[in-house]
Amino acid sequence: MAARPVLNARLPGGTTFDPKTAAAVALAVMALAGCTASPNGAAPEPSPSTGPTTASSAPAAQRQSSTAGGTRLRSVHTSAIMVDDMKLQLDRCHERTLDAAQGLVLPDRACTPGAIDPAVTQADINQTICKSGYTATVRPSAYVTGKAKTASLAAYGTRPSPTIEYDHLVSLELGGASSTSNLWPEANHAGAKGTTNPKDTVENAIHKAVCSKQVTLSAAQKAIATNWTTAETVLHIIR
């Protein structure tokens, strides 16, 4: 005959032992200790809230915040060619005019976010952008960029003018790419006679700082793409 389970047992001193009560007490103690019960008598697992938070265990939104912000530049390899990496729509792009008389105009970030050529890196600037004659080897001909310039003018709602430069937002001398995402019809200052404009002077100053190792290539590219009118200040470049 099978033994009947003992539901209550009397301990020495007259105390009654109730297995159900004991189990409930044990579970309560485990919960306070930050553990959860495991089936089949397995060892309890630690609570998800225990242990330090690492980069890999942090919530996705938190991990993304470490790389969010700043200017995200496209990476487009171009070498004396024009890459049409964006489709611009008629009259959908709008310049941001800070000072028309001084020629302080910024492109529409949605239409011209900026792009860099991955072939140019900090490690090889002496063989690329800092080497005399580099830009001549990577600049597309006017014939190649002509069609793209016409489309860009239409997208920005700008009439052709001999003073408007089809400008590389991140200049070629800073490792910029010849792509739709990095080219825009840049208005000039009042009274300008040609395409030479205030941004050219800024580009030259930053290029000099990069080649003299005063500024990193990446920092220079991001600063000029974000706002070329403040790039020198951001990079602490004094002319």
Order of helices and strands: EEHEEHEEEEHHEEHHH
Helix content: 25-40%
Q: Can you count the helices?
A: 7
Structural class: alpha+beta
Looking across the biggest beta sheet, what order are the strands in?
Answer: 1-2
* Strand runs, count: 10
Low-confidence stretches: 1-7, 9-13, 21-69
Mean pLDDT across residues: 80
Calculate the terminal CA-CA distance, rounded to whole Å.
102 Å
Instruction: Give the C-alpha Rg.
Output: 33 Å
Describe how the helices and strands are arranged.
Blueprint: E1 9-10, E2 16-17, H1 19-32, E3 35-36, E4 45-46, H2 60-65, E5 74-75, E6 96-99, E7 104-106, E8 115-116, H3 134-138, H4 142-156, E9 165-168, E10 183-186, H5 198-211, H6 217-226, H7 231-234
Parallel strand pairs: 5-8
Antiparallel strand pairs: 1-2, 3-4, 6-7, 9-10
Provide an overview of this structure:
The chain has 239 residues and is an alpha+beta fold. The protein has a domain at 74-234. It is 28% helix and 11% strand. The protein has seven helices and ten strands. It has helices at residues 19-32, 60-65, 134-138, 142-156, 198-211, 217-226, 231-234; strands spanning 9-10, 16-17, 35-36, 45-46, 74-75, 96-99, 104-106, 115-116, 165-168, 183-186. The chain has a two-stranded antiparallel sheet. Strand 1 and strand 2 (16-17) form a beta hairpin. The radius of gyration is 33 Å and the shape is globular. The chain starts with 8 loop residues before the first strand and ends in a 5-residue tail after the last helix. Mean pLDDT is 80; it is low at 1-7, 9-13 and 21-69.
